[in-house]
Design a protein that fits this description.
The complex is a heterodimer of chains A (about 300) and B (about 290). Chain A is an all-alpha fold and about 300 residues long. Chain A has eleven helices and three strands, in the order H-E-E-H-H-H-H-H-H-H-H-E-H-H. A three-stranded antiparallel beta sheet of chain A has the order 2-1-3. Chain A is flat and about 100 Å long. The model of chain A has no long low-confidence stretch (mean pLDDT about 90). Chain B has one domain: Rossmann fold. A ten-stranded mixed beta sheet of chain B has the order 5-4-1-2-10-9-3-8-7-6, with helices on both faces. The two termini of chain B are about 35 Å apart. The chains are: A mainly alpha (about 300), B alpha/beta (about 290). At the A-B interface, helix 6 and helix 7 of A face helix 3, helix 4 and helix 7 of B. The complex binds adenosine-5'-triphosphate (ATP) and magnesium ion (MG).
């Protein structure tokens, strides 16, 4: 019988300790990156905290009858939030009614019908369009959309929620188109071939296979665009047809203030917000509602997207 | 495709015995369903396949074999005009299906694909339920709007594809939950649900294990009573086992351009191809000797 002998290795040429300096560099990079992450987290917390602090003062000191009254006249103590919310819903609704079909249509065309060359030219243009400063669109909405379009469909030729909504819609078309197109193009060609191979026409392939397969991306594009529309400030501020006060209205043809426009107008101007009473704090209160609204929207979106994912 | 020329080609073609596409060892009685003469395929400037003359016979399994890149897939995709989906692809020559010029100007490729179904190399189920996958074809073809009729079609197709017993309890669950072999059988069920005339199968077993492969081979054997099947395969044993006729393709390099062009070398009954082929290149390939 033989016993297996294990000799300890004395090979000193093998060195696995590594260089100290390299490890220190690694640690340094680690710390710098962690710090960068921490800063952005701290900033977010500070924003929420300052929002909450001032909003809190408002909530505890305001006369609630004035929060549900005839309109938004913050310097006179009337803080009718529903005026702002309704105006926001109107502009956002109009914007999405324009951006969804046009953006989706453009995306379907680019992804499924356009030639490679055409797409190579148009897609970058679309992305540039998405980067047009909103003040430009706002000015366009006021100076062209209002007199040329809104006045022809029964509105005034000045600023109105309709003009603002159309402006925001134009602003968000590229966003919807771009995200939707990416998501449809991500569907493998093998799906298109499978469908065509079964004798499906192109429109069937698109509506029965491609769109359902990329639905999470399409919903995402819709939600992102809606969030953008709700948060859009410059277009509604310029073209919304109200300066810094607004009487409650539920008509798109009237001028009014959205939440963002109200905040912008409050914090701009020479007298700024050193108004009497709770004017300054009302700004934060509106900001908080806006924040909560987008949060809820994102939660719904996430839930919806997950639901769709589960199904497949 | 040049329609006028094709017609005269057909009429002048009285003696076809010397064409590579007519199986030498067959009696001439059988009816062909596809008739290809001087079929050429180009991808842009690349002449991918040259001068294919080939008859496919009804209710048989025809196998395409040959080294990679010789154009088996390209030729297969001509039969249901799938090449139309590739913008740079161009097909020239005569290709007839039951005497009709498949590339004629009045032919609707969508109608062609309803009759000539396709199963792809990689299983490609839709991101839908098992039921919806099979029902998709009949739905888009307008074959049936009636729910119970659709249920019948789905059940029948899944049974024919030997998948019914494995999935009957979970028709509503996602097709992605199936194994690769099951997915491929689902794709076969989906293809036969529209009741096509012909099934084109491009290496349907290449991503499957031997057991799943055997199942699909058995399935094809059962299907050939009703369908004409053309199958591309890299598996010699498979081709020898299941095909009635076998077409061997290979590529040759163009001396001037350096590009490789595929061509049909020999077409005959499978036994002949695998035991006693006429061409040396065929023999080398089927016996595993190259060059
Ligand atoms: N979509 C395409 N675009 C450009 N060239 C292509 C395309 N599809 C095939 N080809 C070319 O045509 C030639 C034949 O290809 P094909 O796919 O028909 O060969 P194959 O015999 O099926 O090969 P494999 O056995 O590897 O699948 C190859 O040179 C290939 O590069
Ligand atoms: Mg191939």
């Amino acid at each position: 019988m033989t016993t297996l002998e294990v000799k300890p290795s004395n090979d000193l040429s093998v060195d696995l300790t590594g260089k100290q300096s390299r490890r220190r560099k690694e640690l340094f990079v680690h710390i710098v990156l962690a710090a960068a992450g921490a800063v952005s987290l701290i900033i977010s917390i500070l924003i929420i905290w300052s929002l909450l602090k001032e909003a809190w003062t408002f909530i505890f000191n305001v006369e609630w009858a004035n929060v549900w009254s005839i309109g938004w006249f913050p310097r006179r103590g009337f803080y009718d939030v529903k005026t702002l919310i309704v105006a926001t819903f109107i502009t956002t609704g109009i914007a999405m009614a324009i951006a969804t079909p046009l953006g989706l249509g453009a995306a379907i065309y680019l992804s499924e019908y356009a030639s490679k060359r055409f797409r190579a030219i148009v897609k970058p243009i679309l992305e540039i369009l998405a980067g047009v400063p909103s003040v430009v669109i706002g000015f366009f909405a006021l100076s062209w959309v209002a007199p040329q379009i809104v006045s022809r469909i029964g509105g005034s030729d000045g600023g109105s929620l309709m003009a603002a909504g159309i402006g925001v819609g134009i602003l968000t078309i590229p966003l919807v188109a771009s995200i939707s197109e990416d998501s449809m193009r991500a569907d493998p060609d093998s799906l298109r071939e499978a469908s065509s191979g079964l004798g499906a026409r192109k429109r069937h392939t698109i509506f029965s296979v491609i769109i359902p397969a990329s639905i999470s991306g399409l919903v995402a594009s819709f939600i992102v665009a809606t969030s953008r529309a709700i948060g859009e400030t410059m277009v509604v501020f310029l073209a919304g047809g109200a300066a810094d006060t607004a009487i409650f209205t539920s008509s798109a043809y009237d001028g009014s203030l959205t939440m963002t426009a109200a905040m912008a107008s409050l914090s701009s101007g020479t007298d700024s917000v050193v108004g009497e009473g709770l004017t300054f704090q009302s700004l934060f209160f509106v900001g908080l509602i806006l924040f909560a609204l987008t949060l809820v929207l994102n939660m719904i979106a996430t839930r919806f997207v997950n639901k769709v994912r589960e199904r497949y | 495709m040049n329609g006028a020329n094709n017609m005269s080609d057909v009429n002048n073609m009285t003696d076809v015995s010397d064409l590579n596409g007519t199986a030498n060892s067959m009696n001439g009685e059988q009816e062909h369903i596809f008739y290809a003469r001087d079929l050429n395929i180009y991808y842009g400037d690349h002449h991918a396949v040259a001068d294919v003359n080939l008859d496919i016979y009804s209710k048989e399994i025809t196998a395409f074999i040959g080294p990679s890149g010789c154009g088996k897939t390209s030729v297969l995709r001509c039969y249901n005009r799938m090449n139309d989906l590739i913008p740079i692809a161009k097909v020239e020559g005569t290709l007839e299906y039951k005497g009709l010029n498949l590339y004629g100007s009045q032919i609707d490729p969508v109608e062609v694909r309803r009759r000539i179904g396709m199963v792809f190399q990689k299983p490609n189920p839709f991101p839908k339920s098992i039921y919806e996958n099979v029902a998709y074809g009949p739905k888009v073809c307008g074959m049936s709007r009636n729910r119970s009729e659709l249920d019948d079609i789905v059940e029948r197709s899944l049974k024919r594809a030997a998948l019914w017993d494995e999935v009957k309890g979970r028709l509503k669950s996602s097709a992605f939950g199936l194994s690769g072999g099951q997915q491929q059988r689902l794709c076969i069920a989906r293809a036969i649900a529209v009741d096509p005339d012909v099934l084109l199968m491009d290496e349907p077993c290449s991503s499957l294990d031997p057991i799943a492969t055997t199942r699909i081979e058995e399935l094809m054997d059962g299907l050939k009573n009703d369908y004409t099947i053309i199958i591309v395969t890299h598996n010699m044993q498979q081709a020898a086992r299941i095909s009635d006729k076998t077409a061997f393709f290979t590529t040759e390099e163009n001396a001037e351009t350096g590009m490789r062009t595929g061509m049909l070398i020999e077409f005959d009954i499978a036994e002949k191809i695998f035991s006693n082929p006429n061409d040396e290149r065929t023999e080398n390939y089927v016996t595993g000797r190259f060059g």
